[in-house]
Design goal:
Number of strands: 10
Strand order of the largest sheet: 2-1-3-4-5
Radius of gyration: 32 Å
Number of domains: 4
Largest sheet: 5 strands, parallel
Structural class: alpha/beta
Shape: elongated
CATH topology of the largest domain: Alpha-Beta Plaits
Oligomer: single chain
Distance between the termini: 38 Å
């Protein structure tokens, strides 16, 4: 255990040296780090040694003990102070209490008096450190998985449904620092090439990347949907370009270092000076992100490139595209990975790339057949039944005009994505039902984790985390904690079991950590709850 550092400030040298020499500091878990004859000399020494405990006289020349205590506690708020004084004056004691002094000892101070005072302070410091450690552990458990309050805030932020005062108010409540004079949004997704959800390889890369982003205060990560994330970049406006490049490079490095080939895409929005401009910034990034369907082999897209129409010229210029060269997998890929919101821009860009070619009746017929066939294939790959496909997909007329081809493409993609999402929702409900059933049976296991639940129901942990919060309305850890607290309340009210026994029964190795979590969630200690005290607003 780390020794607790002590500093003495006393103008009487006999008293100061006596205190210094009469206590076997290390024996009692302390380290003596220095002394001074008055507050003025003590102040720079304390700032340098940063002790945990200050023992000071009240009356000293140049700067007295109360002035020293008031000054230094502004810099070291956790410093514990023992005041020694030759005066039993009430006013001195009152001022000492107001300053938060731990002990007020009257001279002459015996060795045992000082040891008792130090022991009391050591116990308090250890309890405070224990609480800090528990708080860090508690926050880390939740930090590993998304807080739904954060996700809801960012959804409103990028929708543009919050005023600037509301943005700052909600950000402060969530302890999010959004102060900057420049912002941008980067959207990314990482999947296995053969799957529409996360595999272990994609999940591992994503998890590693998310942890890496937590190290940078300029990046704030939030989830867009089940399969993609967004990074809010904040900083000096002139420095945004460097921060954007660094963000993209981090994603590239993690994906390219994977032992398996991954399907990954990154889109960068247009920077803005204002928080109120983030909704437009997000829309720009989303628009760029939708181009991954047209160019699935390209990994990085930017709104700036879209404005110069560089994408239209990349793989084959639009007027050169014909039926023989056209890649039908684009449609299939979009049905597997696109969203309803992307149907409009995708349809427009898809038709624009065929400009000129669709004037041919033969090509239009080929195009309509290709669209229908590839939509069917994509839906079958997502386990939509052939009966539902045949029943719900719109049919086309081989004599459709160029404008009607665009309308047909928009309609069939909209219907297909809704069918895909309905099927995914059925699967998701089955997955969550299995997960919740497993958790309800095993929540009291001390080693239960997202990984163990995911392994038990044969799905990747990262995908389960996203799906769980989306379906249940609580993160995995929040749900486990809620189950454990409900069981703890039942045992506290209906049995005579001790708190330690209850902690063990509901999955906590450390009874004191259980008490910390219980109070954090209910506002009461286990013993207060058992006695019928009221909290839990």
């Amino acid at each position: 255990m780390e020794l607790i550092k002590v500093f003495i400030c006393e103008d009487e040298s006999i008293v100061r040296e006596g205190l210094r020499d009469m206590i076997p500091w290390e024996k009692y878990g302390f380290e003596f780090v220095g002394d001074a004859p008055d507050g003025e000399m003590a102040l720079p020494m304390i700032r340098k040694s940063r002790p945990d405990v200050l023992i000071t006289d009240i009356t000293m020349p140049f700067m007295d003990g109360l002035s020293l205590s008031k000054t230094i506690t502004q810099e070291l708020p956790n410093l514990k102070i023992i005041v020694i004084s030759g005066y039993s004056d009430f006013e001195y004691a009152r001022k000492a209490i107001e300053l938060g002094v731990e002990q007020y000892l009257l001279k002459p101070v015996t060795k045992q008096d000082m040891i008792n005072a130090l022991e009391g302070i050591k116990k308090k410091i250890q309890e405070e450190n224990e609480q800090k450690n528990y708080l860090q552990q508690y926050e880390q458990e939740f930090k590993k998985f998304e807080r739904l309050s954060h996700r809801a805030f960012f959804e409103k932020l990028v929708e543009g449904s919050l005023s600037v005062p509301e943005i700052y108010e909600q950000a402060n409540k969530l302890h999010l620092n959004l102060l900057a004079n420049g912002y941008n949004i980067v959207i990314f997704s990482i999947r296995d090439l053969t799957q529409s959800t996360y595999t272990d390889d994609a999940a591992n890369v994503t998890e590693s990347l998310l942890n890496r982003f937590l190290q940078y205060p300029d990046y704030i990560l939030f989830r867009c949907n089940l399969l993609s994330y967004a990074v809010l970049i904040k900083g000096e406006y002139e420095d945004l370009s460097r921060l954007e490049d660094k963000c993209v490079q981090l994603i590239r490095e993690h994906c390219e270092a994977s032992p398996t080939q991954l399907d990954w895409h990154v889109a960068v929005g247009a920077p803005t000076h204002r928080l109120s401009g983030l909704s437009s910034c997000y829309a720009d990034a989303n628009r760029a992100f939708s181009y991954r369907h047209l160019f699935p082999r390209r990994h990085i897209f930017t709104s700036a490139q879209l404005q110069t129409e560089q994408y239209v010229q990349t793989e084959n210029e639009a007027h050169k595209i014909d039926a023989g060269k056209f890649d039908p997998m684009i449609i299939r890929y979009f049905v597997q990975t696109g969203t309803i919101n992307e149907v409009d821009p995708f349809t427009d860009e898809y038709i624009m790339r065929l400009e000129g070619s669709e004037q041919s009746l033969l090509f239009r017929y080929y195009l309509l057949v290709s669209i229908r066939v590839n939509v069917e294939l994509a839906l079958k790959e997502t386990d939509v039944s052939p009966e539902d496909i045949e029943k719900n997909l719109p049919i086309f007329d081989m004599n459709d005009t160029a404008g009607e081809v665009r309308s047909y493409l928009h309609e069939i993609l909209t219907v297909a994505i809704r069918m895909r999402d309905t099927e995914a929702q059925k699967k998701g409900n089955d997955i969550i039902d299995n997960a919740v059933a497993y958790i309800n049976q095993h929540f009291s296991d001390e080693d239960i984790s997202l990984d163990s639940v995911a392994e038990a129901i044969n799905i990747s942990a990262n995908y389960l985390s996203a799906l769980f919060s989306h379906k249940v309305g609580l993160s995995f850890v929040e749900y486990i904690t809620k189950k454990r607290m409900a069981k703890a309340k039942q045992l506290l009210r209906n049995t005579s079991k001790r708190s330690g026994e209850i902690a063990c029964e509901i999955g906590y190795k450390d009874p004191r950590y259980f008490s910390f979590v219980f109070k954090k969630n209910t506002g009461l200690t286990p013993s207060q709850y058992r006695s019928g005290d009221v909290a839990e607003e």
